[in-house]
Amino acid sequence: MRINRKKRNEYLWGYAMIAPVTLGLIAFYFYPFFQVIFDSFYKIGSFDRRLGFVGIDNYTKMLADKEMWQTLMNTFQYVIIIVPLTVVFSMLIAVLLNKKVKGLSIFRVIYFLPAITMAAAISMVWRWIFNGDYGILNGLIGTFGLDPVQWLNSKQTALFCICCVAIWSNTGYYMIILLAGIQGISRGYYEAAEIDGATGFQKFKKITLPLLSPTLFYVVIMIIISTFQTFDGIYLMISTKSNAIKHTQSVVMYFYRTAFEHSNKGYASAIAVMLFLIIMGITIFQMKMQKKWVNYE
Question: What total number of domains does the chain contain?
Answer without folding.
Answer: 1
